[in-house]
Amino acid sequence: MTVNVSVVVGNPKPASRTLKVATALVEHLLDPGSFDLTLIDLADHEADIFAWPSEKMAALNASVAESDLAVFASPTYKATYTGLLKAFLDRYPANGLAGVVAIPLLTGADQTHSMGPTHSLAPLLAELGAIVPGRGLYFVASQMDRLDELVSAAAAEYRGNLSRLARVAAHAGTVEGVSR
Amino acid sequence: MTVNVSVVVGNPKPASRTLKVATALVEHLLDPGSFDLTLIDLADHEADIFAWPSEKMAALNASVAESDLAVFASPTYKATYTGLLKAFLDRYPANGLAGVVAIPLLTGADQTHSMGPTHSLAPLLAELGAIVPGRGLYFVASQMDRLDELVSAAAAEYRGNLSRLARVAAHAGTVEGVSR
Amino acid sequence: MTVNVSVVVGNPKPASRTLKVATALVEHLLDPGSFDLTLIDLADHEADIFAWPSEKMAALNASVAESDLAVFASPTYKATYTGLLKAFLDRYPANGLAGVVAIPLLTGADQTHSMGPTHSLAPLLAELGAIVPGRGLYFVASQMDRLDELVSAAAAEYRGNLSRLARVAAHAGTVEGVSR
Amino acid sequence: MTVNVSVVVGNPKPASRTLKVATALVEHLLDPGSFDLTLIDLADHEADIFAWPSEKMAALNASVAESDLAVFASPTYKATYTGLLKAFLDRYPANGLAGVVAIPLLTGADQTHSMGPTHSLAPLLAELGAIVPGRGLYFVASQMDRLDELVSAAAAEYRGNLSRLARVAAHAGTVEGVSR
User: Fold this and answer.
1) Which of C29, C30, C165 sits opposite D165 (nearest CB)?
2) Chain A positions in Cβ-Cβ contact with residue B163 (cut-off 8 Å)
3) Does residue C180 fall inside a structural domain?
4) C30 lies in some domain
5) B102-128 in b/e burial notation, b at 16+ Cβ within 10 A?
6) Which of A17, B27, B78, D49 is the most exposed place for a label (fewest CB within 10 A)?
7) What is the pTM of this model?
8) Is residue C177 part of a domain?
9) pLDDT at C165 over 50
10) ipTM given for this complex
11) Which domain holds residue C137?
């Protein structure tokens, strides 16, 4: 059995380094062959992002909401996520990402805004009901030559966190209807 | 096998309603008999909170850091956690709560500050390496007569989240040395 | 001599109540006849918000950056400003609102998100170099029948703040070249 | 006529570099001889910070609340202000710093937490009714040899901001009873 994974990239420019970091994180985090990956590069959907209603956007939103795991990635604009990523998330109703395990990821030019993922993007995802299993990931764009090393370390921290969470989960009372 | 649970209460007044809400949450979340509970009411330790070094405080800090699950609870002062709770957390070194599954809980007079647990206390705990498996819990103090109902609903949401996290954990690559 | 004032509204729907609250605030804050008002309803510019370059958008951005005072207003989406407003602000370079006195304003359904203007929109404007002379304003949309009363109270607080600021300004060392 | 200025330092260790940066900022910002400075080093008051009631603490709180300008300075602990500073601010009632022009200042080891003053300490002060006329100041402690240069630049930005604010103040409707 596999898990459904989404990567949502909020860079107004397509095929960005941010996208590359996000997909690398998924590959380092999950066992090969254990997941189906849906990649949503919002740069491809700028023309529809404010359209309402939009079957196309609704399908994208639903795809992410049905994921087991989703990485929400954006370059850092004005110390936080882009308006493009926020506009995509704005399309959800209250609690629209309930139950989705989510990893917030921001790329930036230097360490100045490294609080962004944990203090700004993570709370936004939690508002929507997503579950963020650890710190957000901040990646300094000039370190693309160390991509594997840095993403591997982040993935190891998330794996450790998931293992600790599973231990607590085993002692939490069973709830009817939450498994899928 | 049991899990170690801590409840840390940052109310300058002892035996507060905040303490009562926090312990009720643990009881609703975990199976009876499956956990050992350590309760730290910081009102009992105000005289030592800035002492450095302090064997007594170091023991309290270590006890929480070694927990599988910890609830960090505080009344809302100036829209966020109290200085007393922060002073306790300030005693940790960087990453001092690594691997602890943590639930942020604030009590308040009305809905005005209900963003506090998710937007302020949760990021603080994540900075220390704790893992926050969902939204923070905000409890309006005038609703003590509905304590069981409200805490039960919050516990059900956390249980659902933990179940979802365990599902992803099962597909994350194994890491040597993270289990305890 | 008059001051230049901008009102920027980030509601994806045009001519919103949010717009009405923002313009009412300006009218209560400044002396009649003492200001020139530019109103930018971003709902009218959705098709261009991600266009790059765009002479039209550049003119709008410049107009706000050259204002003495600007109100940035948005409905509350996911506990904070809309992606539409953020996308407009993302077009500025670093420090692009330097020296602009700015008032953050969010409208919302209830008090649940009342921390948004002060804790989320105000810091975003400060990142861009804008000067926020007080708390952000949160307006519960169901109180439109009390618009004048509530906005008048907010304007009085800002006027008091500006008076206090002017008093400190009189004792701050003179800087060459900052007056306009 | 002079203005009353307070410097409040939240470092648990007395006579810190943080204190030195804060007083240097006041000296660069205001004209010599134009202000009376009260310096509150909270390290000297740890034993009383949770005492309630306390005439001594009440006098300190009142002194700051009656200031025209106050600098609130703290080292960065866990990405934000210390528990000691928060505990001092917790002693105020709602709106307890109304009308005080306030500058948030954090010192830190590197740029990692540079969002703290603007995104965390400034909103806290605004919650209390203080008026923050610009970005918060973040000072990297290893740059003490450039203290005058860096603080001078920050002071120049605040002076420019105050000048812009005074310009808007001149067009804001007069309010009875706000001058002192």
Assistant:
1) C165
2) 169, 172, 175, 178-179
3) no
4) yes
5) bbbbbbbeeebbbbbbbbbbbbbbbbb
6) B27
7) 0.96
8) no
9) yes
10) 0.95
11) 3-169
